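TODO from last week: model UDP-N-acetylenolpyruvoylglucosamine reductase.
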Amino acid sequence: MSTAIRENVDLQAFNTLGLRARAAHFVELTNEADLAPLLARAKAEAWPVQLLGGGSNIVFAGDVSGLTIRLSLRGIRLISDSQAGAKIVAEDCVIIEAAAGESWHEFTQYTLAQGWAGLENLSLIPGSVGAAPVQNIGAYGVEVADVMHSLRAYDREQGRVVELSAADCGFAYRDSIFKSQQPGRYVILSVRFALSAKRPLVLGYGDIQTALATAGVQEPSAIDVAQAVIRIRQAKLPDPAVLGNAGSFFKNPLVPSAQIEQLQAHFPGLAAYPAQLSTPGWQKVAAGWLIEQAGWKGYRRGSVAVHERQALVLVHHGGGNGAELLALAADIVASVQARYGIHLEQEPVLMGG
């Protein structure tokens, strides 16, 4: 095994919130062949295993015991029709595969530069390709579930590499089998996407339409949509390289339509959207609106705060720890619950502590 395990490693640089934490044992995985021996070593030492991608969806609640594996696999390749087999979804589509450690945003821009549409609405989302299916990341009407073809993963139960189709991944709103049903079982190695130069653009969100109109774009291309999304995100969200954050800290809650009607009678400005669920009668409520109306937007407590431009984003100004951030999040959840009777669910996953 060529990959060296280090001890007592500072993890502050490996999470976009910039929270202080240390890993008891840490390894950067750059070669797939090293994974099985690393897992065998962890088992022999009775070390719990934690998987770390780009660190953009992690809250370190404290130091991390056991072995932390940072997935830094690299590589992008076009999969031929014959390799993709019968799973190819349309005659004009291409299957493109990216290794788990590739930057998500850089990968989206690469595909667009090749003339392949599908990922434009997901531009500028921080994190890695391998982490994208775990959270089923989404923005402006598109989710990973809509464009993913399949993925390769090491199944720790079977001790071998397996391929899972999009249907196998149990995708739901900001969820998958990797996050809630079988966390830790699979180590995602690479992800394949079905893209096409002829794929219809998703333009339903008003922010995108406004951004395109402001730029004078009347017949947008996929690249035009990506640039619009980038401008929107830059205007609304802080750059993690400048101000520590993990993007949206809370999910937009799913609420029964009957409850929404009752709430809108008391709070006319409450924003709700179709939930895209197989079960009718539910809608998605804008969590940012709930938090802002409850008075939290721009609130600061020591080193942590609610962002001044987007109440859905919690930020870390430096020098703090996960306990401080989680305490603020808990107070926000309690406040929204008391005011609206709606429970907010945290998006980033906890590690350590």
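Done. The domain at 244-351 is CATH 3.90.78.10 (Uridine Diphospho-n-acetylenolpyruvylglucosamine Reductase; domain 1).
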